[in-house]
Amino acid sequence: MPQRLRQRRRADGSWRVWWEPGKALAAAGWKSVELSADKPTWSIREAEKLNRDVDLARAGKTPARTGGRSIDAVIQRYRAEAFPDLAPKTQKSYDALLRLISAKWGEDHVSDFTKPVIYNWYQALLRTGSPRRAQALVRMMSSLMGHAELLGWRSEDSNPCLRLKMRTPKPRKRTASWDEIDSLVQAADALGWPVMGQMVLFATYHGQRETDLILARRADFRRQDVQLPGDASPRRLWLWQLTRSKRGTEGVLPVHDACAPMLDAREDLAPEAPIFADPVNDAPFNEETFQTRWQRLRTTAAEALPSVATLQFRDLRRTFGVMARSAAVGRDDIGDVLGNSAARDPLLGETYMPADFPAAMRAIGAITRPAKGPEKRKA
């Protein structure tokens, strides 16, 4: 058995296996490393490697473990191997989390992380920030630990981030009223940016994310005669065929009658032309330029209606769902439009449900403005 490799039977009958540096090495900064009783060959190999690192350190050389299997090394491999399968917006979100993790833990060895270490970090994050950010960072670290297992840098099923009993952040519930939607549209016209108002309406009536609107091209839309159940004759509709950016789910959505004129005006665009272009320079939007325009639009609209100041563009997706439910549309039908399983998981609503065109038609067609009553005559 390698030097410093230890094992002990726990009270529940399972075995703890670990590498123990001893007092002298601990005083020099070495830490105990948890190994796996279920992987004896791997545990022996890891203990032998750690002993070689000790010998190198005593000889005045840099141990291989310092940089070879650090958190920064896992991050580098994760970016190279996992990022290509992620949507650009997800990559950007993950990259921000990875930078924070690197700043905190970059030089630490992946095998040094135990459940108590992660739990104490999570509690510290809760004390200094929001539960949502704390949860996001621990989940990102969990992905790194899982990737380290794939690389053979940690034993299988040793992820210390699992089953921490983290708080579930309260989901955002903000939706837009029709007055707020109208205020945004009016502000867009006042700024000379009518396309921004059209994007607000398109998101409200169809429940899709801003990225999917940014990526929408003329070739994604076509006119077609559609025979719906119960109709005596086909209806001429605009159809939107999209692959949703976040999950890669595909769908074909009918365009709401209120938005059809927007497409009528764009019918002669080139196939690859964006349906919604930046009103400042007529170039395709990216996430940064869209958010810049949105913030300016929201600030302008809030001058007339202050409540708009707390609205985020993503709230329009939720607005679609709430309005459809208020019109007695079933959760399954709404889920078909959103491209998720809102019917099955009301909290997350992020599991793919195959699109069903009649269901999408029912959900989108149910979004209507409330009827205005007759104006009262002045006495």
TrEMBL record:
Species for this entry: Palleronia pelagia
Keyword set includes DNA-binding: yes
UniProt signal peptide: none
Record-level Gene Ontology MF annotations: DNA binding
Chain segments annotated as coiled-coil in the UniProt record: none
Residues covered by the Core-binding (CB) domain: 69-149
Statement: the UniProt record of this protein carries the keyword DNA-binding: yes
Any single biological process term in GO: DNA recombination
Name this polypeptide is given: Core-binding (CB) domain-containing protein
Record keywords, A-Z: DNA integration, DNA recombination, DNA-binding
Superkingdom of source: Bacteria
